[in-house]
Write a structure and sequence with these properties.
The structure is a single chain. The chain is α/β, with parallel strands linked by helices. Helix content is 41%, strand content 18%. Strands 1, 2, 3, 4, 5 and 6 form a six-stranded parallel β-sheet that branches. The protein is globular and about 45 Å long.
Amino acid sequence: MKVLGICGTLVGSKTSILVDSLLKQLQQMLPEVEVDLLDLKNYQLDFCDGRPTMEYSNETQIVIEKITEADAFIIGTTILHGSMPGVLKNLFELVPIPAFTNKCVVFAANGGNHLHYLAIENYVKPIANYLKMFVLPEYVFALSSDFNELNVLKEEKVRETSQIIESYASYLKKLANRSGEVTK
């Protein structure tokens, strides 16, 4: 099973740190699972304009292929102006719906104030539902205060995220067993 962590922002480093932390926790709980981090900062994606996938740039096609090959996702986003960044919305538009269909996702977001968590419920989850993903009801939300002065997640936030990743790991095991994959 492949779990792809997606850092869906071009702003700052906290989202990438958060997603990477979640992937590492998942890897500790399920060592047989292959994890990878796709940080959109490292790719120059084309804007979605309705072209067939094979007409987009090589970099865009690589990203689409990584998503298509994944069995599940941890998708991270910064909350900007009460919504997700355009780069993540563009990614959702670029990738064909079947690449997301029936794949399990947990969301992780960081925002500037305690009300920004609402963007996950009001903007991000509805898109995942439209794309027919299995959406974990829990999600990770972090504020700047959840990181220390070295930009590392504080221990209390790691404990909180660990409980969510434990639920996610349990769900992944159930899906794997249902599809006939071997899990330990």
